[in-house]
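Hallway conversation turned thread

IA: we were arguing at lunch whether anyone had actually written out Threonylcarbamoyl-AMP synthase end to end. Turns out nobody had. So, for the record, here is the sequence (205 residues) and right after it the structure tokens. Reply here if something looks off.
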Amino acid sequence: MSQFFYIHPDNPQPRLINQAVEIIKKGGVIVYPTDSGYALGCGLGEKHAMDKIVAIRKLPENHNFTLVCSDLSELSTYALVTNQSYRLIKNNVPNPYTFILPATKEVPRRLLNKRKTIGIRVPDNAIALALIAALGEPILSCSLMLPDEDITQSDPDIIRDYLEHQVDLIIHGGYLGQDPTTVIDLTEDSPEIIRVGSGDPTPFN
């Protein structure tokens, strides 16, 4: 059975953040809040945890996983970014966008689809940013959308009913919106909007 932490959405308690990070470091899967609903997350190098996320979401083989970062300082470590793409990203984070970019060799191969791309995102959520800062690296994540649903889960009590035997920690960080991120593909010369969600697509048209 998973642990269940109540973490303040504006002033996350450091003790609980550190406990959550220890769960990630030990290979756990967590549910945590973002600025576009709740997400499933784990450590970058944790294959077993990633497999659990794939099973929970019933993800296809070509799914783009996302690295949730605290800022853009790690962008060039994990993604190949042109000057044009960097300006676009810098002008639109933190916000509910996921940017699809060519991955560097620092990204574990098992995270890559056939196109060898990776999602990058900087959320506007105090709990998510505190977790990443304490972990010292991005969280491997995907939106918490249950199979056959196209909305992100927004109610941590309902999430607990569904997933308390499948994840290691559920963080209650408030009741959130249900729209997933807006996904922008930046692998070509011009941005391509893959999915319209809670982020305004206007800057990329």
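OS: looked through it. The mean pLDDT is 93.
IA: good, adding that to the notes. The radius of gyration is 16 Å.
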